[in-house]
Amino acid sequence: MIGKRNTYRVADGVRIPGTWRHAFIRNGSHFLTDLFIYADGLVDCWGLVTIEEFEEKVRSGWVATTLPDGARASAHGLATWRFSEPRGRLSPELLVAEVRDTVDQLNGRPDSTGRCLAAVDVFLADPTEENRAAARAAFLAVPASRRRYALGDMDSKDWPLRTLVAGPGGRTYLPNDPPVTQEAYDRALAYFEERARRRAELRARDAADGPAAPQAPAVHLDDSCPDQPVPDPGRLGLRNDYPAPITVGKAGHPSVTHAYWALSVAQPEIAVAVSAAATAAAARGIAAEAPRREGWEQARVAVMTRLLHAKFAQHPALADILLATGDATVIYDDVHSAFWGDNGGGGRNWTGRLLELVRSELRMRRTGLSGL
Q1: Which class for 331: exposed (0-12), middle (13-18), buried (19 or more C-beta within 10 A)?
Q2: N or C: which terminus of the chain carries fewer CB neighbours within 10 A?
Q3: What whole-number percentage of the chain has pLDDT above 70?
Q4: Which of 113, 101, 160 is nearest to 139 (CA)?
């Protein structure tokens, strides 16, 4: 399971989400390390490998699941020790199966547990023996190390699942379980009925406030912009450098970038020169040579928010372009700033975040909530 162990790597400027888990590498001695697992199916175990290559490393023992008594081990820079009566919890097959599940999870696809629960839903809707057999096969395809977590219920664990798919008179996969009685089977059915009722209540509550994740594909605003307005700028018009004049207070500026850098400098005469610069790049260059206004670093996000509000309030056509992005995540590149830009996953993307905020506030006003 991924939990809060989120990471990523950048490949060709694209951010590849990932996670990690502990493992032992056997390279002479045993080394406690982390396996990094990525959504594109690559695994970093002291070098990026495909799932198939990773499986071979596990089966060869280079990624170790068997820990010999007395073998030397270390965690780099932390400790060294020897194993004494070690007990590994995973076989090579289970480790590989868990890693494959993790790749599915990172891609938002149903993993073996998700496929099992989907098969169980089919059986509950149409309880034929054929559907029970399919649900049982899907359940047994879940790594044995993960079956107890399949229902997310640590009180019942997987008892309802293994009872349901075994059926009355059947045997579960656990050798010590007795044959399933009709009473036990009825209790398992009642469990799933109650579970379905709770899930329906949760879905109704979640739907009332909208989805948790964006429904539209992410919007990527590359670091490029014309120096002159164009008839149909499209998403280029969302960039701060785009020549869309704005008035802030009593001062006019050729673009958000001009206004931002003019407000950043301490001397009024330099601010005038910044605002009068022929291009946004020239405005940035002039301001970069001058001292910043005191407290600018702490105020800059609020300033940029006000400037973006001004831009889209004064240019309704550009506001329409922003609103047309729906609820998409806005990824804004800025080669000059890892604070304002995402920059291939290496920046903080504050401009993208503020564009999403302003978009939401534009939507608020258009839905009649502007009096809040």
Answers
A1: buried
A2: C
A3: 98
A4: 113
Contacts of 10 (CB under 8 A, 6+ apart): 16, 344, 345, 346
H or E element, residue 171: none
The 10 Å Cβ neighbour count of residue 279 is 18
Whole-Å CA distances, 146 to 92, 140, 178:
14, 11, 22
**What pLDDT does residue 76 have?**
83
DSSP 8-state assignment for residue 265: B
What tens digit of pLDDT does each residue of 164-201 get? Answer: 999 999 999 999 999 999 999 999 999 999 999 998 88
Find, among 349, 320, 353, the residue nearest to 333 by Cα: 349
Quickly tell me which residue has 């909208």 as its tokens: 210
**How many other C-beta atoms can be found within 10 angstroms of the C-beta atom of residue 335?**
10
What is the mean predicted confidence (pLDDT) over 344-357? 93
Alpha-helical regions (H) of the chain: 51-60, 92-106, 112-125, 129-141, 159-166, 182-208, 256-264, 268-275, 280-288, 296-314, 316-323, 350-366
